[in-house]
Amino acid sequence: MIKQQYSSEQLLTRWEDRRACQNIAGKFSHSYVIHEEELIYDRFWSKRDDVCLGFNEGWYNGAEAVKGYYDALGEKKKLASKLIRDRFPEELAQYSEEECAGVGILGYKPVDTCVLEVAGNGETAKGLWICRGASMELTSCGFVLNTEWSYLAIDFIKEEDGWKIWHMKNVFDVLTPMGYGWAGEPTDFTEAPEFAPLKDFKMPEPNVPMKLREYYHPMRVFSPSPMPPEPYYDFSETFTYGIEEV
């Protein structure tokens, strides 16, 4: 990329663009804290057909698949909240199902160590964050507190109504219950009959399955993080955090 000189007005616009993209990442993170995961797609994602969302096991490729993933998170939350409300009637019976949404469940996905570049033409941007969080999840065995370490890599695109997520990759090194080893140590939780319906609830599988990252174990070969973004002018000059081949 040829080094470009910007006017004061252009520099201000680029600063505003950078702030907008950082705010999207922060609001995305906050959505997990306030149990509004099912609203993430409508709030922050582009409605283009070529959006994609990647995890260790593969890609949700296309608008329908990405929206379906977040819709399923909402359905899982509703089911978990209902089961918790039924399990603790004395404490929660006075609250409506809507008021109990997310009760007992902790979702915490903080983002830090930001590396963000806005394209020279101002049409796209790229950001990389590290997430070190924890989540209290209700399973068919009861409450399980997980440790989560992951990378969040996003391609943003500027549309008429502002900046939106275009491609996102959230790949994990660690996603394991606390009190157990990170190296795939098996858990021995006992099924809880009152939470049995969660055993049958299945999140949609990636429609493009492939290994994007191997979870940490002592014999894993060195696995560098997703590449931090570097300055670029047009998206055609840089790599993508989205799916490259289908």
Describe the protein.
The chain is an alpha+beta fold and 246 residues long. The protein has one domain (8-237): Nuclear Transport Factor 2, Chain: A (Roll), CATH 3.10.450.50. The protein is built from five helices and eight strands; from the N terminus they run ααββααβββββαβ. It has helices spanning 8-33, 40-44, 63-87, 89-92, 197-200; strands at 52-55, 58-61, 106-108, 111-118, 124-139, 142-159, 162-177, 208-209. Strands 1, 2, 3, 4, 5, 6, 7 and 8 form an eight-stranded mixed sheet that branches. The mean pLDDT is 91.
Features:
246 residues, alpha+beta, Nuclear Transport Factor 2, Chain: A, eight-stranded mixed sheet, 26% helix, globular
List the helices and strands and how they pair.
Blueprint: H1 8-33, H2 40-44, E1 52-55, E2 58-61, H3 63-87, H4 89-92, E3 106-108, E4 111-118, E5 124-139, E6 142-159, E7 162-177, H5 197-200, E8 208-209
Parallel strand pairs: 1-7
Antiparallel strand pairs: 1-2, 2-8, 3-5, 4-5, 5-6, 6-7
- The CATH class label is Alpha Beta
Question: Strand count, sense and closure of the main sheet?
Answer: 8 strands, mixed
- Count up the domains: 1
Estimate percent helicity.
Answer: 25-40%
Order of helices and strands: HHEEHHEEEEEHE
Looking at how many chains there are and whether they match, the oligomeric state comes to single chain
Q: What is the structure about, briefly put?
A:
The mean pLDDT is 91. It is built from five helices and eight strands, in the order H-H-E-E-H-H-E-E-E-E-E-H-E.
